[in-house]
Amino acid sequence: MTTKPTRILFICMGNICRSPAAEAVFVSLLDDRGLTDRFHIDSAGTGGWHAGAPADARSRAEGERRGFELSTTARQVHDGDWEAFDLLVCMDHDNATLLSERGAPDHKVRLLLEWHPDSTHREVPDPYYGGPEGFVHMYDLIESACERLLEELEASSAAD
User: Fold this and answer.
1) In this structure, are residues 10 and 26 in contact, taking their beta carbons and an 8 Å threshold?
2) Residue ranges of the alpha helices (H) in the chain?
3) Cα separations in angstroms, 51 against 20, 39, 43, 115, 149
4) How far apart are CA 91 and CA 111, in angstroms?
5) The overall pTM is greater than 0.85
6) Could you tell me which of 141, 113, 117, 149 has the C-alpha nearest to residue 29?
7) Domain ranges of the chain
8) pLDDT in tens, the chain (160 residues)
9) What are the two backbone dihedrals, phi and then psi, of residue 85, each rounded to the nearest 5 degrees?
10) CA 7, CA 39: separation in Å to the nearest integer?
11) CATH for 6-159 (3.40.50.2300, 3.40.50.300, 3.40.50.1450, 3.30.1490.190)
């Protein structure tokens, strides 16, 4: 019996900093655990300003330093994503609200940091207008949350 892969879309504003980083981190975790065939991972932005562009150079540099490859190009989220993906994982409340306002099913829209071990962290701050330290912090948050998200998904699939 072939199981349909779990489809996760990571979402931020422009799809050049946070969501491609989350995509790369999650894909790396899947590769490390031999689970790539059980998931389909993508990322998108609520805005289309950067559509077709590579990830921000600072995000790519910090990702590379940590062993992640950000080779995707930015795209804007579209209404078809609501049906195509099982989880719409947003980096912050603003983007989650935008999805809900556009008609995304509330049960699919989640914040990435719901899975962060420190509940005082609620959102992944947008590092775009800051320096390199913002990208370091961004990756720290994303790595911790993605690890726990994958653990939860593995546990729930084992229970099925």
Assistant:
1) yes
2) 18-33, 57-65, 81-84, 93-101, 132-159
3) 12, 24, 12, 28, 27
4) 6
5) yes
6) 149
7) 6-159
8) 457 899 999 999 999 999 999 999 999 999 999 999 999 999 999 999 999 999 999 999 999 999 999 999 999 999 999 999 999 999 999 999 999 999 999 999 999 999 999 999 999 999 999 999 999 999 999 999 999 999 999 988 766 6
9) -115, 145
10) 6
11) 3.40.50.2300
CA distances from 121 to 96, 117, 125 (A): 16, 9, 10
Cβ partners under 8 Å of residue 77, min gap 6: 9, 11, 44, 45, 46, 99
Q: How far apart are CA 109 and CA 11, in angstroms?
A: 10
Catalytic residues: 12, 18, 126
Q: Identify the bridge partners of residue 70 per DSSP, sorted by sequence position.
A: none
Q: What are the residues whose beta carbons fall under 8 Å from the beta carbon of 34, sequence distance 6 or more? A: none
Q: Which of 18, 3, 9 is nearest to 149 (CA)?
A: 9
Tokens of 71: 């080779």
